Amino acid sequence: MKSSNIPEVKLGIIAVSLFALLYKVTWGKEKDRTETYLFTYTCQSAPSETFTGITPGLVCSDGDYGSSLGKLADVNASGIEGDDRNWQATFTSMVEGRKGEHGVTVGDVLYLKGKSFSLVVGDSMFAVYLSDIQPLE
User: Fold this and answer.
1) What pLDDT digit, counting tens, does each position of 20-46 carry?
2) Which of 67, 72, 111, 119 has the fewest CB atoms within 10 Å around its CB?
3) How many CB atoms are closer than 10 A to CB 130?
4) Helix, strand, or coil (residue 17)
5) Residue 133, number of CB atoms within 10 A of its CB
6) Looking at beta carbons, which pairs linking 10-19 to residues 24 or more positions away fall under 8 Å?
7) Mind listing the pLDDT tens digit for each residue in 76-117?
8) Three-state SS annotation for 23-67
9) pTM for this model (two decimals)
């Protein structure tokens, strides 16, 4: 009697394996698909010397989690009225990530507008918040 159940068990294992493979090939790929986004970061104040050498093309990363945030596409820095030691700036970079129900996931880190973190650009670090996320088409 026990030997007659073995083919049924094998058939069940094969059916489950095929279902899992079909899921990964069809629906599971959508979850892993990345798209390119334009992230805009706002720095409200940083010492003016930290902006020396900051130019488009430099590598950007999250100083808190180590996530790669692409290359710097643009930087717009200016002095702060009444403060001759610090500047304010906006940075933009093109980032590969996965759109979720809330925000964009880069690696294992979720990025939402308003998220504050340390942005590393070249050899400098800036306290920023993520002020905009736009998909690139």
Assistant:
1) 666 555 555 456 789 999 999 999 999
2) 67
3) 20
4) helix
5) 18
6) none
7) 999 999 999 999 999 999 999 999 999 999 999 999 999 999
8) HHHHCHHHHHCCEEEEEEEEEEEEEHHHHCCCCCCCEEEECCCCC
9) 0.76
